Structure formats: C-alpha cells, structure tokens
Amino acid sequence: MLGRSYSNDLLLHCLILNGILTETVGLANVTLMIYGTWPAFLVQSLPFMGPGFDLAVAQVQDAFASTLNMSRIYVSSKNVKDCVDSGAYFTDVADYYYRHENHTSESHEQNILVLIYSGCDDSPMFAELGREWNIMVVSCGTTFSNLRNRDRFPTTIAAGPVQYDLHASAILDLCNRYNWTTIGYLYDTSQLNPFNLRSYQRVSRFLRIYAPHIQINPFAIRAYLRNQTTGEYVWFTVDLNEHSLGPVTWQRNETDDEVARAAFAGMFQVINCWNYGSEIDNLRKNWKEHTKTDYNATYPGRNGPNEFTITAYGIVHVLAQAVNESVAVGADPTDARDLTKRLQDRQFTVPVVGAFRIDQFGERQNTVCVNAFDSATGQFERKLFCDFTNSKLKSVRNMTIVWHTPTGDPPLSEPWCGYTGDAVRCRNSGNATTIASALGATLTVLVLLLIAIFHVNRKSQKARDVWWKMSLDQITLQTPSKTTINGEDKTASQGKGMIIAQERFIWIRNFKRTTNAPFPDKHAVQTMRKLRTFSHPNIVNLFGIIETDRNLLFISEYTDKGSLEDALKTNSLHDWELRTKD
Fold first, then answer.
1. Where are the alpha helices (DSSP H) in 107-247?
2. Which of 110, 114, 247, 485 has its CB surrounded by the most CB atoms within 10 Å?
3. Under a CB-based contact definition with an 8 Å cutoff, are residues 210 and 238 in contact?
4. How far is the C-alpha of 39 from the C-alpha of 75, rounded, in Å?
5. What are the residue ranges spanned by the domains of the chain?
6. Tens-digit pLDDT profile for residues 548-573
7. How many degrees, rounded to 5, is the angle at CA 424 between CA 419 and CA 430?
8. What b/e string do you get for 436-453 counting C-beta neighbours within 10 Å, with b at 16 or more?
9. Is the model's pLDDT at 512 over the cut of 70?
C-alpha cells in the first residue's frame, strides 16, 4: 500500500488550504508498538487484548485506505510474565525504536510511531520516553491518574477501562450521601486472604475490597460466620465487568453457595457500566475464537473477552480518526504533541462500542455504576451511577436500595452500641419509637426499683434499730441454782446477776420500769445504734435487752472484776497502774 495517493476530496481540500499542491503526499504509516504481559491469566494480557487490536487494525485499513496504513507489532519479550516483570524489559521498546528503519525516513510517507502499553497500570517511564521521542504513548491498562500533567506528559493518553479515581469518587460520594465517615480498605492480590476481620471490625463497618474475584466468595463466607454481614455492614468490591477468573458471584456450585448468597446481602459492586447493543456479542465471539487460534489461549470456564479487549479495539479506531483528521487539515500527524491534543477533551464514536470519551487531561472517562446485591434474584442490580457530566452519583430511574437494617434505613457510620458493642448509649432498640418506649419502660422500672429499695432500706433500718431485742427463751441456764425473775423461777449460777447462756458468761442487769411509756423512745434508739457500733476490749458489749411489762433486763458481757460502779464503791481502783492500763 506504499505510494498510494490521497483521494480527490482530500486533494481538493489541500488545494483550498494551500492555494496549490505541488507534489503528492504519501500515506501516513502508523505503527503500533504494543508492549504488555503474555501469560493468559491477567485480563490485560496480550492473548486477551490482541484480537481487539487485530480486528480494529483490519477495519481501519479498509475505512481509511486512502489516508493511512496501520500495522501493529508486539515489542515485549515473552519473559514479561506479570506486572512485576513488565518493568524489567522496557529496553525492548528502546531497542525497537532505535532500530526501526522507517521512523526517520526521508520519503514522502509520514511515519508515525505509537507506543501502546497494555500492562497493569499507567507507566510514567513510558510517558517520559514519549515526550523525549515525540511519539504518542497510550496506556490501556488500569488507570491510576498518574499521567494527567500535560506539561510533563504532553504526548500521553490514558485509555484504560478501569479508573480508580472514578471508582474512589463514586465510593466517596456514596459515603457522603449516607454520612459514613470511616472506611476500611482491603487490597489483597496474594490470593491467600490473610486479612484480619477482627481488627477491621473494631474501627469500621464499611470495607472497600480490591482482591481477586475468586477470593471474594470465601472472604464473604468467613465474614458471615463471624456475623459481619448483618445490616450494619457494607462491602464495596471494585470490579471489572468480566474478570479473567470470572465475575464476582456467590454461586460456585459448592456446598457453601447458600451461605455465600446470604453473605452477599450487604455487598455493593463499583463497576464500569456500558449500554452496548446486541452486536457486541458478535465481536466477542470473534475475539474469543481468535484468542484460541491466533494466540493459543483460552478463557477459563464460560468467560469471554472483557473491557480490556474492547479498549484495545476502541483505541485503534480513535487513533485512526485522529490521524485521518490531522492529515485532512494539513497538520503534521508525526507531531505527537499535536496529535495528542486532537484526542483531548473529545468524544469519539467507535463502531459497535459507541462513545469513547477522553477528557482535557488525556484520560478516558467512563460511566461508573454502583450495583447492589438483590438477595431474591441472586444478582447485582444497578442503583446509582456517575459519568463525565457530573461526578455526583445519580439514582437509576425506578431503582431504590434495599437496606437490611431493622428500620430499613442506611446503616449508621458507627453502630448504636459502638464498634465493640460497649458504648454507653447502647440500647437494644432499632428505631426512635422503640427507643422511646424502652426509655419509658426503663424509667418506670427505675422508679419501682427505687421505691422497693426505699422500703427495703426502711425495713432494714427498723431491723437494725431492734437488734437488741431478746427473749427469756434465748437464754439457756446450765447450773442448778434458781432465781425468780418477774415471778418466774429461773436456774442461775453462783454469783450475783451472773448466768451462763450458750456457753458464754453474761451479766443480767434488772431495771424496773418507772413509766408506761413505750420503750425505746427516740433517744434510746439513737443510743442503741451507737452501742451497736462499739467494739473495744475495755468496753463491755451489750448483747441485748429483754423487755417485760415491769422490767428491762440488760444482757451484757460478763466482767469478772465487777462493774465500774462496784469498783468505785469498794475503792478497788486505788491501784494507779491498774487505772492507766490499756
């Protein structure tokens, strides 16, 4: 196809622009240098994306046959086996660039090199090489928004289908909408699932999960068994529409499927969403066949081409349109800076795929949806979405989120009982009415309890005030001596007023009542309370009082040297050593 001239329309356009056309301009030769990983276990590996590149290049050749000639070459080594390896073989790109025979050709053909990195992320190293070499660099892998600086990366386009800034913005807006302030983040690519659910439970009820799809199912089951999938928990999975290991699903034809289904109840899916027509199925069928025949690779299970394949297909069409436009207006398509600007802040139309939007910073803008799991159908359903027109989430028409809380409302940022269940304000209620009822019932119980405590204390105080009361039946005499008390014969031991009661020596002091007033009066009660608290070796303990109609019998501890009154009468305290003894 070398040496092919422009169409008559294009020649006329050039004549209008320049006044006269003195020579025929050759084709624009576009070479796509594609660098990426080879093993067929990553969604962005070349065996999966390659059919998308190949089909688009063939279609572009037909659509712009009079303007450009496009070809692709894989410049990455077969040794590039994963994301870690991808950075170890950048020299393959430099080697091809400096050995390429036509990129400095003096012929009429315009040779355009475009470096496409289909790897794991948007590489600043490739972007800086593109700036120095004045070639366009297109990143088709995961986008982390590292290349938006147009002064530093003027020739770079980030066209990947997954943009973590958009996903993060969607999650942030969702959290702001429902006042969720503490979010956990699980990033696990080890497939060993070592995350400590207990430590997460102590600080948050919301978790953003980025892990291989195959790990999310057992992870959810483990959380369910720990009671961490109830209505107060929310899980976000950052998801691709079609992962090489299969979509995020509870159904894996295992014995724990129903447990997983229950565990998915509080799960949300943050995912890119498109509205493709039925023709996309034919494209996917074509790509799947070529993956097997041309790249000797197969998709696992019933999975098929994903959004990375669609991206490969779409970016080739976008590049062709930009190059064709550059040639049509008489610009220099080999000027990567000018060519890159033609892609910025525009929306292109790609056959079958539809809109392909790139913002002013050279980053593709997709629509992001928040899908909620429907326990009844076992499927994720679109509930909210945001796109380049507005970063705020908007509700999908006639779709509402079903919350699995007792009240049906979104869960609180912090559970009512706190993250660890020990908050002071903790109540067992689930809504304001129940709380009010519970508070009323609690107050009633407290009032009744206070009344009961008052009566118990009063009864207890009364019991303490009559601790001294004794009866004659409580004294058991153990000697044959007899005495008469109130007309009743009692056996007493030898010695005035001394009897033996319950194997203890005690004094009985007999006082006649002089009035008919009840005993004890208020003053006597106070005295009895004080006597009950006395405890000292030199103070005689009062055991009690036996009350009769005519007498008060004071039962006290026995003192073998008599009473103080007896000692004073007999002058037995003349011994000062005895007086001062402790």
1. 124-133, 164-177, 197-201, 213-225
2. 114
3. yes
4. 15
5. 28-162+276-362, 165-239+241-273+369-395, 427-465, 469-579
6. 777 777 777 777 666 666 666 666 65
7. 70
8. eeeeeeeeeeeeeeeeee
9. no
